[in-house]
Amino acid sequence: MKQKQKLSHSGLETLMNPRSVAVIGASREPASVGFGILKSLVEGCVLRSAYCKPFLGRVYAVNPHAEMILGKRCFKRISDVAEDVDVAIISLPAKIVPSVARECGQKGVKALIVVAAGFAETGGEGAKLQAELLAICKKFKMRLLGPNCLGILRPGSNYNASFALSAPPAGQIAFVSQSGALADSILDWALSERYAFSSIVSLGNAADLDAADFLEFFEKDDQTKVITLYLEGLDDGRRFFEVAKRVGGKKPILLLKGGRTGAGEKAATSHTAALAGDWRVFQGAMRQAGVALVDSLEELFDTAKTLATQPRAKGNAITVVTNGGGAGVLASDYCARLGVNLVPLKASTIAKLDATKKMHPAYSRRNPLDIVGDALPQRYEAAMEVLLAEEYVHGLIVIQTLQTMTDAKRDAEAVVRMRAKYPSKPIVCVFMGGHYSAPGIKILRDAGIPDFNDPLKAAKAMAALCGAS
């Protein structure tokens, strides 16, 4: 595949951190994309949430048939705006997008976001339209996101240049997706699961800006600690590999690949005009580049959240504390399968546990450390304190199963205290159950401590933290 001619990255910096944005195709119709984009900028999102905050820069509405929309004066054309415009979002039918893009170029706009579908993903005339649009952007040195995309969200900068329904909490996870609809659904998921993002970027057809470009941006972005991607294919696989290998040495990169099967490849091609490629070849290349491949959206963001909130383990020597023997056995099996080393406990460690006078006479005295079903918060805390204080222990998985005497809230508070006392060692929790575990789970999440409902998920998270995966 011929490599795309790349333009200056200054336009990408402006796209991600603009001072002024124009919505061309701003609409008075609440159910329209043009209205949704304008509202996202003016009010922070379409459907209000605690995380929606208005864009702090200048916002211009362009609509020749309206005078005011959402309190913003409407201009007939982009050229009627007297001030400089950094980014223009075009929400118009595909066939007129190139002519409007040309006007933007003449105006001096630095970057375009084109949300309309009807381009290369449809083939034929759509591909010609996309080629014309790209040629115009190159002529005027404008960077192009899309077409056929959802847009961009930067929660930490109050920048929502999209028609997504809401906005997520600000955090340190960047998400780049070739599916706009998938990104939009994940936003809703983020509100309930407390996934927090530095950025969400919908690539669409990636006519100009692609995944490699955004890897380079997030490499230097202070708001981003972990980079996650959903990709269906790559037009320039070699460049992506080279960039990912460099960036992955500085920040973790997690990737969920769509189009692994024959049926998936066909769907991916029709979806965003992506070249899905051979899964086995792709898998091998990503391993060489140091990119971690995951199998589901849940795993993608669970792992990302863990990497964003926990320190990396200094080595692969992990202990498990549990009040349920069966849960400990499952954790052992999963850790063994994933390459997580459950380090044998030294005799001196057992002696320290005994000396606490908090252990049950029948506790396991090995790793996993089964502190027995009647364990109260004091026993949990004593066990965690002894283990985390040991230099040879590099991380901890804490499992709580529900018994009559279980106090999820106070157990969680004990974990939070240990996290504060030993900040250089990662802790991952499995507070099993639902309603009765909820108070403890909330305390853990509020403190930035990952909690999972299954030992397998915790083992996968710890594998990422200790370098086993």
Keywords:
469 residues; alpha/beta; Rossmann fold; seven-stranded mixed β-sheet; 16 helices; 18 strands; 17% strand
What do these coordinates show?
The protein has helices at 10-16, 33-43, 97-107, 125-139, 180-193, 211-220, 237-247, 262-272, 279-289, 297-309, 325-338, 347-355, 377-389, 408-421, 438-446, 455-466, and strands at residues 20-24, 58-62, 68-69, 72-75, 87-90, 111-114, 143-145, 151-154, 159-162, 170-177, 197-202, 226-231, 253-257, 292-294, 318-322, 369-370, 395-400, 427-431. The chain is α/β, with parallel strands linked by helices and 469 residues long. It folds into two domains: 10-306, 3-Layer(aba) Sandwich (Rossmann fold); 310-466, Succinyl-CoA synthetase domains (Rossmann fold, 3-Layer(aba) Sandwich). The strands form three sheets. The chain has a seven-stranded mixed β-sheet, with helices on both faces. Strands 9-8-11-10-12-13-14 form a seven-stranded mixed β-sheet, sandwiched between helices. Strands 16-15-17-18 form a four-stranded parallel β-sheet, with helices on both faces.
